[in-house]
Endo/exonuclease/phosphatase domain-containing protein
Amino acid sequence: MVIGGTIFPHKRIHKATWISPGHTTENQIDHNYINKKFRRTIEGVKTRRGPDIGSDHHLVVANLKPKLKKNWTNSNTKVQYSLPPRY
């Protein structure tokens, strides 16, 4: 598992995921975890301060861009043609 959100350069306001009740302390205590196989698909992690979720934590959003590969098959299938019956 890889922790997302700690390696991307952002403004201070986009990094803090928790703010103390007195608004004096900001911490980055919420993170995204992703499988090591897919760690290169993360483009960025930010916090969204707008949604009211009834908590002192902010919403953590990760942008992912999966890199898909074409699935090649090595099958030697014969092509069958649908021919009309002979008259």
User: Anything to note?
Assistant: The longest strand covers residues 42-48. The two ends are 67 Å apart (CA to CA). The chain has one domain: 2-64. Strands lie at 2-4, 18-19, 26-27, 32-34, 42-48, 59-64.
